[in-house]
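Translate sequence into structure tokens.
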Amino acid sequence: MRLTLNIWRQRSPGRPGAMTTYEVADISPDMSFLEMLDTLNERLIAEGEEPVAFDHDCREGICGACGMVINGRAHGPERTTTCQLHMRHFKDGDTIDVEPWRAGAFPVVRDLMVDRSALDRIIGAGGYITAPTGSAPEAHAVAVPKEAADTAFEYAACIGCGACVAACPNGSAMLFTAAKVVHLNSLPQGGPERERRVLAMVEVMDEESFGGCTHAGACADACPKGIPLAGIAVLNREYLRAATARPD
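Result follows.
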């Protein structure tokens, strides 16, 4: 395959960026999108040019490190992570636009790399449970109803890639925050921090440069792990419950 790539290049956060056009050839349909970028970077390095910077780690759709906007869609035309998007989903001669996550809360570090530490700060505000120190408890020490376990497992699938924020027209982190809150609040182990957790995580989310949620649904459509949009309604109920119970 021969492709034309329009890639966002930006040397540092404080410098202006621009789309730069590259031609790549001999691209196998079986390559992943990241492997295609590797091929481009090998050529750029051989020619004495700066390679395109992008985030990646496991390349197995697990870690959530990879992420970019491909032809206007977070992670590209398929509902998967960028590392699991294969070039067979494109045609010979295609022109592909590649940009970093487009959100105020994710400032560009370099090229396609963005700073997603705002998500880490949301998790740090309440993404944990009270647990005694010492040896690990037995797996069945705390009984968990199957319905609660299924709900927690469904929302725990979130890998924190940030596609929901990049896809949202408002740059909202509501789906991400909902996934973390619903996951832990569904379990009996998460009970002690239940109210404090949702208040703290929403507070930190509001302090960051995320936009407000208008329930557009683009976040759930872009999520590679299929986190349900209904989680946002659960988050809102949890927040109202906690805010009502909070003493003045």
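Note: The chain has a mean pLDDT of 94.
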